[in-house]
Amino acid sequence: MPQPTPEPSLYPFVYLASQSPRRQELLGQLCVRFELLLPRPDEDAEALEAECAGETAEQYVRRVTLAKAEAARARLLASGHPAAPVLAADTTVTLDGAILGKPTDVEHAIDMLARLAGREHEVLTGLAVVDGAGRILPPALSRSIVRFAAAPLDALRRYAATGEPLGKAGAYGIQGRAAEFVAHIEGSYSGIMGLPLFETATLLRAARVDF
């Protein structure tokens, strides 16, 4: 009588294809052990986040997330590191159908914040996991709504002057001082931070990560 094929062993860690301190903190919250798998100097990581004409915010975040996962898979194969699942993510903010990416400077950040003030916007975070065999699992998408209170321009300028908005989609980090502007959220707080924990845990368990 044929014996059932044993399931593969659990993986003790995951590779994180992101340099975001917030994503690292959130993985730690799940007690997931991880190693960073960051772009090499010869990779143009910023090019992956370039917008394509005519795509919606959802199409954008799904495409960029999968592109990051594919790049990370290739990076792992080229590195010679031990096999383990890889986690990639991308977060974008959208208002009136426009994608609000990372501000280029403080003035750009102030302009973005002024557009968000007194209004609701959507935060989308895409997740993709490459399993230990190199297959990309069905990706996940987290949607959240954030409503900013009306805020005077000098308050937005003070916030932008902290430097916190730079490098963040939509020019703010909800876990930081920008919380003073957030009147209401619907959805996933961790997703707004950049790594929705429910979806992350589901994908990592599917990839047989031990945590």
Task: Kindly describe this structure.
The protein is an alpha/beta fold and 211 residues long. Helices cover 32% and strands 21% of the residues. The chain has 6 helices and 7 strands, in the order βαβαββαββαβαα. Strands 1, 2, 3, 4, 5, 6 and 7 form a 7-stranded mixed β-sheet that branches. A hairpin with a 2-residue loop joins β3 (86-95) and β4. α3 (106-116) crosses α4. The longest helix is centred in the first third of the chain and has 23 residues, at 57-79.
Which keywords apply here?
seven-stranded mixed sheet, alpha/beta, Maf protein
Annotate the secondary structure layout.
Elements: E1 14-16, H1 21-29, E2 34-36, H2 57-79, E3 86-95, E4 98-100, H3 106-116, E5 120-130, E6 140-148, H4 153-161, E7 182-186, H5 189-193, H6 197-206
Parallel strand pairs: 1-2, 1-3
Antiparallel strand pairs: 3-4, 3-5, 5-6, 6-7
Helix pairs in contact: 3-4
At the third CATH level, what is the topology name?
Maf protein
How are helices and strands ordered from N to C?
Answer: EHEHEEHEEHEHH
Distance between the termini: 35 Å
What is the CATH first-level class name? Alpha Beta
- How many beta-strand elements? 7
**So what's the overall shape?**
globular
Approximately what portion of the residues adopt beta-strand conformation? 15-25%
At CATH's second level, what is the architecture? Alpha-Beta Complex
Mean pLDDT, all residues: 93
Indicate the low-confidence ranges by residue numbers. none
